[in-house]
Amino acid sequence: MALSAKHLTPRIATEILADKKTLLSGVHADEIRELLEQRGVLVFPQINFTDEEQIAFTETLGKLAPEMAGETVYKVTLDKEANVRSDYLKGSWYWHIDGTMNEVPILASLLYSKVLSPTGGHTEFCNTYAAYDDLPEADKQKYEKLQVLHSAWNSLLYYDPEPALSKLREMMAIGDAVLPLVWKHRSGRKSLVIGCTAYQIEGMSYRESTEILVRLREWATQPQFVYRHEWTVGDMVIWDNTGTMHRATPYDPASGRMLHRPKLEGAEAFA
After folding, report:
1. Contact 47, 232 (CB under 8 A)
2. Regarding beta strands 41-44 and 14-17, do their DSSP bridges make them parallel or antiparallel, or are they unpaired?
3. Are the CB atoms for 218 and 22 separated by under 8 Å?
4. N or C, which end of the chain has less CB nearby within 10 Å?
5. ∠ CA(97), CA(102), CA(104), 5° rounding?
6. What CATH code is assigned to 4-264?
């Protein structure tokens, strides 16, 4: 079966229609990788993969990246019985890039829906390539060489502004990173590196830093740069983690919402 692609918005997200056998064969892997870089988000509606098929498909696109505990498929849920580290996922309700504490972030995530929340629990994506491209030239020059401090503990303060000291120290132990505000990719393209882990621009006051980071978040998440996926059970969505931000819309932690996620290993450091 041929692969059919339909753009869902002008600036981000493309729907891919193909049967399981075609996708698992890997015959369209190069085309899918190219579309992923160009469009940021790929939607495979109701593909109904098993975990094994999802892993096999991921491996047609590149090298599987293991999770922190070594598992190949991560359970994205706030159900503490299914995921003992579920509290950490509360930070996913805010715009972010995965892996900002790593020298080389993951290339992509492949999220597959198993159980939905009756309300909320959608996933939104924004195109940080397009957001950079549309900045006024004066702003591009202003931001070009800025470096930004990132930390996991800063994201904690979004959902728990008065954490216990023990929890704060646990998140601080994950580390900090200094990353460019503008990522200059090997391809020659540029994207913004912002989100809820970013908290201060080097050489600026906290006040001035916050104003710039909030302005850029607001700019990058304008409707023309955003795709919102409203899940159906069996959907799979892939996003380019190097050129997008994402967030989940809030949902009831007791809803049982469950998505499964393998990841593609990254090959390019922040630069």
Report:
1. no
2. parallel
3. no
4. C
5. 90
6. 3.60.130.10
Q: Any alpha helices (H) in 127-257, and if so which ranges?
A: 128-133, 137-143, 152-159, 165-172, 206-220
- Mean of the pLDDT values across residues 143-161? 96
Gap between the Cα atoms of 27 and 29, Å rounded: 6
pTM for the structure as a whole: 0.96
**What crossing angle do the helices spanning 152-159 and 165-172 adopt, rounded to 10°?**
150
What are the Cα distances from residue 75, in Å, to 89, 108, 241, 258? 10, 16, 18, 7
Reduced to 3 states, what is the DSSP secondary structure of residue 112? strand
For 60-93, write each residue's pLDDT tens digit.
999 999 887 778 999 999 888 877 776 778 889 9
193 Cβ contact partners less than 8 Å away, ≥ 6 residues apart: 97, 100, 128, 148, 179, 180, 181, 182, 183, 270
Q: Which two tokens stand for residue 180?
A: 């460019």
pLDDT digits (tens, 9 = 90+) for 31-60: 999 999 999 999 999 999 999 999 999 999
30: CB partners within 8 A, 6+ apart:
none
1: pLDDT confidence band, cut at 50, 70 and 90? low
Question: Do 112 and 235 contact (CB within 8 A), yes or no?
Answer: yes
